[in-house]
Each structure stands twice: as structure tokens, then as C-alpha cells.
């Protein structure tokens, strides 16, 4: 057993910049907050959620819930029904889902003194019980609402807000957070865990994901490895306005090359897939199986710009391999991220998108529609754009899944060669051996600390 007094977790977040009222621009911030913050709903372990009881009306538009007595702010004050209800209503106004679902009568909920106003869609039934009424442009209201509140959701997750408190970091957390001597410290089962900076990859006790571990140059043999129960998906979205990809054959060759490169990686981590869905998943159809053979760069391509959702500490295997093949073909590869100039990101030839395949949900499809410039990318792929918007409209990728809409999406993206299913891959958590606590994935693929 180590005698170290403060453990360190490499989270790539150098400071806490959490704002509950905006969609995180850097997904790694969201990953960190998903570790720290309690979700509204945790079906796997209701006692560890903010709402330990809830139910929907048959049409999904009315949501009644009871706040858990274990849901408390940083100073130990219990979360009230009003705070929980306002947090959901405000969260829905700030998240991208507000275009499809929101609480009735909350148009002014972002105005000053919002907590003193009355809202027709919010009813406080008791100090710890409330009812919300939703208005919606999608058919599956229940699926969208639950996805935002559920353990395991990501991009549209919402959290409660402490009223009359200027400190935006007063959160309902799994582990109390303190700021000590310029450092953020979590109290995990009475052990201190420090949040390290992105520049300090070495000598940490815990790591999220392989790329953080690889950036640390740490010996993996010294760590306990925990594998995600569900994979991520990686897709490549062609820009239909790109001159080099007006030609379908050009898109098909690059699609095949990207799939070929990624299929040659570590089989324990990377999972080759025939299409956007695999056998047994709603939406699967073997007719829409994509090629994955080696292809040279098409003639006439001199430069290829690829947009990445985040910065990477170093180039990954597939990035280096693509550059190697491109160099032989005298093609220049340029990588840009959403942190670069907006016009460069929007004008890239291809955009990479990463998201989770979540149990029986395929929410990544709806999340993709919200990514910067995606609708512009697809503007000249009419069938794909229509299918994607239909999935969003019907909330086809949340429970219950709409198989017909998912098959239309698979068919359109295949026939137009617009959105390429590049690879699926597993995620890993690393905890140094001989520690009293370790990082672990839950069944819903949340990360939590557990005692050994």
C-alpha cells in the first residue's frame, strides 16, 4: 500500500471552467465533470442520483420526480425541489436540445431574478417533489428528456443550480471539491486526489484513456487497466462543398483508405465494423457494408484538410499513417481543430466526429447533427441530410429506437458516401497498482472511483 498523501489524476483540465448553462466546447471537460458530478438520474444505482424517484406521463410530456435526501451542495445543504426543477429547465434552454424540447413557459428563465418568477411548466409539489411539463418538436419526448438527465449521457447532460449563489462551481458532486494552494482537490473516500494540468502527463496515479497514458511515457505494467463496457464510434463527414469531394469516386476511395488504416490497429482496442451499425443493432443491414481496402489518393488532390474535435497531445497512429501515405502521393495533410480559426474548421474537406455507442441507444447520430458546420457539410447530400434530420425529429436514436429511421440514415450515408463509419474503439482507465482506490467504468460507462 502506498503512503502517498495526495494522489494525482491526469484529466487534461488545468482549471475548473464548468458552466452548467452552456454546452462544453471541449469534450474532455465534460468527461471530467461526468466523473465528478452526480447525474439527475442513475437507473443503475438510484441512491447515487439527484432524483431517486421519477416517472413520466404516458405521452412523456409530464415528468414528476422526488429529490434524494443524499443530494447535497458542497456545504452539506440539501438540494431543494425548486433548485432541481430550475436546473433542468435552465439546462434545457442552454443545451442544443432546446431546439426540440423545453419546459413550458420558461422563455424568461435566463433573465435576471429568474428564481423569483413563476413558470407555468414548473410545479413545486413539496420541498423535495416537483413536476415539469415539456413542449416538444420531436415525437419521443421521453427519450430526449431522459437522455439529458440519465447516468451515462454526455453532450446534452444537465445539472442542478444553486439559487442565489454567485459561485457557479457549487455543484452536487460525488466527491467534495476544494481549492487548496492553487490546486483543485477531490475528497475520494477520505483520500485526496489532485486534478493535474494538461502539461503534466508524467507520474500521475490515474489516467483517462490511452492517449493520456501514452503522453505520460509511463509504464503500463504499473497500472490496473479497466476497459469500457461500450465502445466509441469514429466517423468521417465529407464536406459536400469541397471541390475535391464533388466526385463520388474520390469520396469512396478516401473512405476505404481511412477504414483500411484504422482496421490495422490493435484489435483489443479497435473494432472494425461493416457500417454504422453492427449485426444485432437496430438499423443494421448488410447491404450497406463499406469497403476497407487500401486505396491510393485520387488524382488531382494536392491538399486535404481534416477537422478534429479536439487537440491531441501527439498525433495518433492513424494520423501518422495517413500522412505517410499522403506524402508518397505528394498530398499535404493539414489538421485543424475547433480552437483554430472558425472558417478553417468550417471549410475543411473532412470532419472527424467521435461519440459513444451507448447500450441500446445510438444517440451519437443526434449529437452529430449539433456539431459545428455539420449541416453545411451535408448541404449537397440531400438524402443524408434529410435522414439525419428525421432521426433528430423523431428522436429515433433514443429509447425506443426507430429502426426505420436508422436504416434510412445508414442507406443514405452509404449511397451518397457522405458519413463514413471509420472504426469503433474501446476506452480504458488506468489506476496505479497498490493504491487504496481505483478508477472504474460502470455499466453505463460512467467513470467512478471505487475502493479496492
The DSSP helix count reads 11
What is the structural class?
A: alpha+beta
- The CATH C-level name of the domain at 232-425 is Alpha Beta
Question: How far do the termini sit from each other?
Answer: 11 Å
Main sheet: strands, sense, barrel: 7 strands, mixed
Would you mind describing this structure in some detail?
The model has no long low-confidence stretch (mean pLDDT 84). This protein has a domain at 232-425: Dipeptide-binding Protein, Domain 3 (Dipeptide-binding Protein, domain 3, Roll), CATH 3.10.105. The protein is built from 11 helices and 20 strands. A 7-stranded mixed sheet has the order 7-8-9-1-10-18-11, with helices on one face. Strands 13-17-12-16-14-15 form a 6-stranded mixed sheet. Strands 2, 3, 4, 5 and 6 form a 5-stranded antiparallel sheet that branches. Helix 5 packs across helix 6 and helix 10 packs antiparallel against helix 11. The protein is α+β, with helices and mostly antiparallel strands and 452 residues long.
Summarize the structure.
The chain has helices at residues 27-36, 81-94, 141-149, 209-216, 248-263, 317-328, 342-346, 364-369, 374-377, 382-394, 403-416, and strands at 6-10, 51-56, 62-67, 101-103, 122-126, 129-136, 177-180, 183-188, 191-195, 206-208, 223-227, 232-238, 270-271, 303-308, 332-337, 350-356, 419-425, 428-432, 437-441, 447-451. With 452 residues, it is of the alpha+beta class. The strands form 4 sheets. A 7-stranded mixed sheet has the order 7-8-9-1-10-18-11, covered by helices on one side.
Amino acid at each position: 500500500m502506498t503512503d502517498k498523501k495526495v494522489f494525482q489524476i491526469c484529466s487534461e483540465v488545468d482549471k475548473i471552467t464548468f458552466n452548467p448553462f452552456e454546452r462544453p466546447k471541449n469534450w474532455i471537460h465534460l468527461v471530467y465533470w461526468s466523473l465528478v458530478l452526480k447525474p439527475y438520474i442513475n437507473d443503475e444505482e438510484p441512491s447515487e442520483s439527484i432524483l431517486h424517484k421519477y416517472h413520466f406521463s404516458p405521452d412523456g410530456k409530464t415528468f414528476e420526480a422526488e429529490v434524494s435526501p443524499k443530494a447535497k451542495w458542497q456545504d452539506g445543504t440539501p438540494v431543494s425541489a425548486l433548485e432541481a426543477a430550475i436546473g433542468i429547465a435552465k439546462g434545457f434552454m442552454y443545451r442544443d436540445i432546446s431546439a426540440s424540447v423545453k419546459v413550458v413557459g420558461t422563455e424568461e428563465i435566463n433573465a435576471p431574478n429568474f428564481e423569483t418568477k413563476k413558470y407555468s411548466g414548473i410545479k413545486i409539489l413539496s420541498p423535495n417533489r416537483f413536476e415539469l411539463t415539456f413542449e416538444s418538436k420531436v415525437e419521443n419526448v421521453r427519450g430526449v428528456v431522459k437522455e439529458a438527465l440519465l447516468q451515462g449521457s454526455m453532450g446534452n447532460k444537465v445539472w442542478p443550480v444553486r439559487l442565489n449563489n454567485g459561485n457557479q462551481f457549487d455543484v452536487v458532486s460525488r466527491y467534495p471539491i476544494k481549492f487548496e494552494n492553487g490546486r483543485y482537490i477531490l475528497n475520494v473516500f477520505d483520500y485526496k486526489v489532485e486534478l493535474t494540468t494538461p502539461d503534466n502527463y508524467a507520474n500521475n496515479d490515474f489516467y483517462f484513456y490511452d492517449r493520456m497514458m501514452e503522453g505520460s511515457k509511463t509504464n503500463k505494467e504499473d497500472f490496473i487497466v479497466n476497459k469500457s463496457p461500450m465502445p466509441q464510434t469514429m466517423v468521417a463527414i465529407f464536406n459536400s462543398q469541397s471541390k475535391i469531394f464533388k466526385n463520388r469516386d474520390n469520396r469512396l476511395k478516401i473512405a476505404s483508405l481511412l477504414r483500411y488504416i484504422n482496421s490495422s490497429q490493435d484489435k483489443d482496442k479497435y473494432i472494425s465494423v461493416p457500417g454504422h451499425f453492427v449485426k444485432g443493432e437496430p438499423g443494421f443491414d448488410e447491404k450497406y457494408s463499406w469497403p476497407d481496402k487500401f486505396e491510393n489518393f485520387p488524382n488531382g488532390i494536392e491538399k486535404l484538410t481534416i477537422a478534429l474535435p479536439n487537440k491531441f497531445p501527439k498525433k495518433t497512429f492513424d494520423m501518422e499513417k495517413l500522412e505517410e501515405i499522403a506524402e508518397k502521393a505528394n498530398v499535404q495533410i493539414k489538421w485543424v481543430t475547433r480552437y483554430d480559426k472558425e472558417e478553417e474548421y468550417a471549410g475543411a474537406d473532412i470532419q472527424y466526429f467521435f461519440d459513444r455507442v451507448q447500450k441500446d441507444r445510438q444517440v451519437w447520430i443526434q449529437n452529430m447533427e449539433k456539431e459545428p458546420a455539420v449541416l453545411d457539410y451535408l448541404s449537397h447530400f440531400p438524402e443524408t441530410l434529410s435522414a439525419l434530420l428525421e432521426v433528430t425529429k423523431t428522436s429515433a436514436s433514443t429509447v425506443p429506437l426507430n429502426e426505420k429511421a436508422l436504416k434510412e440514415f445508414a442507406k443514405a450515408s452509404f449511397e451518397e458516401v457522405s458519413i463514413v463509419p471509420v472504426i469503433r474503439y474501446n476506452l480504458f482507465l488506468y489506476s496505479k497498482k497498490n493504491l487504496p482506490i481505483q478508477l472504474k467504468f460502470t455499466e453505463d460507462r460512467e467513470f467512478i472511483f471505487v475502493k479496492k
